[in-house]
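Worked example 2:
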Amino acid sequence: MHTVQKKVCLLGDFAVGKTSLIRRFVEGRFDDKYLSTIGVKISRKTLEREDHRLNLLIWDLAGGDDFSKASANYLRGAAGALLVCDLTRAETLITLTDYAQQLRAMDETAVLILVGNKADLLDERQISDEALATVAETFAAPYLLTSALTGHHVEDAFYHLAEAIETLP
């Protein structure tokens, strides 16, 4: 059985939950201790397919100003990305446009999926489904609501990204 390797990125501002989403997907656990990612951290997860293995190289990129300094080098070769916003902080949705444009400037066919994280914090939610849908539509991307804490739709987001990048030429 052959192995196909694809690079994917998680993009979004500081503290939206990118590292927690990756940890939940790769390790099946949640850690509530916040440690800001400096630069990039690369994780790997192998998905068994019918006729091959899909090896996902998951790049966890620092958000905010740190990202813009080295974005081209980090994004080069990415087949797609999860664009992550924090549902409890409205400003994190607005900045996703910049991340998406930077990735699409590197590769216009890169797959994008919008992820509204921290869906478990219902009382603190500031971003509506309608707002998510509007932004997702501008990228021709689907969106999902996730919770790294509970695991809600975390695997769905990564599997959806994996399936979409496998259909690329």
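The mean pLDDT is 91. The first strand starts at residue 2 and ends at 11.
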